[in-house]
Specification:
491 residues; five-stranded antiparallel beta sheet; 3 domains
Length: 491
């Protein structure tokens, strides 16, 4: 099916879907939140006299950017395949207990906005981006500040204020669009999960088989050239025959072996003949053990290759199982010791990896968001994955410190110098020179920052940089956005 023809890709269809959900779910309270990497399930309490509780399924995954509602949850095997995170580990679980105020969609963009009010009256907005290869899910507070997103660097449009809800034109009909989404979503997701699970299993098996093949080739070459100690043992046995005739202090001697053939033997003149004999036998035994070790490892590598061939046949046969998806997930879990666990398997379920803790985040002058890495791994992720090319990148000059990104929303030229200076003060605060009166801080656009090849985590090189001399600290007009930013300033 042409992706452009899907209802989630057309703003007019999304407007109708938003209207259908607005009519059915407005004022309903969220009683359950589930999900995993790139997807959420929101469960709404049934209103008095209405249908059973409704589940909204919002997916932002490569090849599966879609949304639909249903009265029943997804099949267990599907959530296993998608990856399931416990509710307490989901950042979106803060929607639990919130009431849905309205659902809306911009007339010219493929985004669904869900406007919520928590029990204290504070507003939260969940944006489901339905354009792009993998879309996104973005949770923001009432002022449009990002609280969580399924994927890094959310599109600025997902943080815009939700549009005012509007009734759709006569065509398409909201109920028809909702029914179409309810039909299409599962019919597209099931085959996708099947293909993904088999592709992942085949890739894991191929990696193990290729590694075993390379190891086997290397070990076979080593075995062909390995010295088993035969020459050293021959010299030791020859020396043993003539040990009584050898004097101490001889560096080299030629003696007839048991067959009468001349054998040249190198000796250590500082050792006695008996000590030289022990030394030669020790070397012979060591060489023999090394050859045996190589041969044993080669046999293990060949056995692993044989096992992988058998497993490949077994995996191919799973396509004919009554439930191929359940079969391949069970097979993958059973072969985890050989193939690696992939997504962690807990009590028969594929558990999603825990959501990464957010970076340190500050808001400058109530407008400009600043992200700060807390360690080398976060610095790498922040600079090379999360930041947009036109964001401003800052770092204390000449000393170790955190990478700092000032989010520019695609318009770096509109960021005032005062905001840059306040972000630079944060970069100075989170560096080794934070006790200095003034710290030089370089800044440039993130697109001018690269990671040198084979460099350790946290290392970056930049061009087109300029510098500022600023005092370290949190300047007036800078407010923390998460709890740990007021703590220890060490990077």
């Amino acid at each position: 099916m042409d992706r452009a023809s899907l209802p989630w890709r057309r703003p007019e269809s999304l407007g109708a879907l938003a209207a259908a959900w607005r009519r059915r779910l407005a004022a309903s309270r969220v009683i359950g939140v589930g999900g995993g990497p790139g997807w959420l399930r929101l469960t709404f309490a049934a209103r008095e006299g209405s249908a059973p509780p409704a589940h909204l399924f919002l997916l932002a995954r490569a090849g599966a950017v879609m949304a639909w509602d249903d009265e029943t949850p997804l099949p267990r095997v599907w959530t296993d395949a998608l990856g399931w995170a416990p509710q307490k580990r989901l950042a979106a679980s803060q929607l639990l207990g919130c009431a849905l105020v309205t659902v809306s969609a911009p007339p010219d963009d493929a985004i669904l906005f869900f406007d919520f009010a928590d029990p204290d009256g504070r507003r939260l907005a969940l944006a489901h981006q339905l354009f792009g290869q993998r879309g996104n899910l973005v949770l923001a507070d009432g002022d449009g500040r990002r609280l969580w997103s399924a994927h890094a660097s959310p599109h600025p449009a997902t943080l815009a204020p939700p549009p005012a809800p509007a009734e759709p034109p006569a065509a398409p009909d909201p109920d028809d669009v909702a029914a179409r989404c309810r039909e299409l979503g599962p019919s597209l997701l099931g085959p996708l999960l099947h293909d993904e699970a088999f592709a992942e299993a085949r890739a894991a098996l191929r990696r193990v088989a290729d590694a075993a093949g390379r190891l086997g080739d290397n070990l076979a070459r080593d075995l062909a050239t390995a010295d088993g100690g035969e020459a050293v043992r021959h010299a030791a046995e020859t020396l043993a025959i003539h040990l009584h005739a050898v004097r101490r202090g001889v560096a080299e001697i030629e003696l007839p072996d048991a067959a009468g053939q001349a054998c040249r033997i190198v000796l250590d003149p500082t050792l006695s003949p008996a000590e030289n004999l022990d030394r030669l036998f020790h070397r012979a035994r060591k060489a023999a053990r090394g050859r045996e070790h190589i041969a044993r490892r080669l046999a293990e590598a060949e056995e692993r290759q044989r096992v992988c061939r058998d497993l490949q046949d077994e995996l191919d046969g799973l396509a004919g199982a009554a439930d191929p998806l359940a079969a391949v997930l069970a097979w993958r879990a059973a072969q985890a010791p050989l193939l690696g666990a992939g997504k962690r398997v807990v009590a028969g379920r594929r558990e999603a990896p825990p959501e990464a803790a957010p970076y340190r985040r500050f808001l400058v002058d109530e407008r400009w968001e600043v992200w700060i890495g807390r360690n080398d791994r976060e610095n790498d992720e922040l600079t090379h994955k999360a930041a947009a090319p036109d964001d401003w990148w800052l770092h204390a000059q000449g000393v170790p410190g955190s990478h700092v990104v000032l989010r520019a929303g695609g318009r770096p030229e509109q960021v005032p110098r005062q905001a840059l200076e306040k972000a630079a003060s944060l970069a100075a605060q989170y560096c080794r020179a934070r006790n200095s009166g003034l710290v030089p801080v370089v800044y440039t656009l993130r697109k001018h920052v690269r990671k040198p090849r084979r460099s350790p985590p946290g290392l970056a090189a930049c061009t087109h940089e300029k510098s500022l001399m600023v005092p370290p600290g949190v300047m007036p007009g800078v407010a923390p956005l998460n709890a740990d930013e007021a703590g220890d300033p060490r990077p």
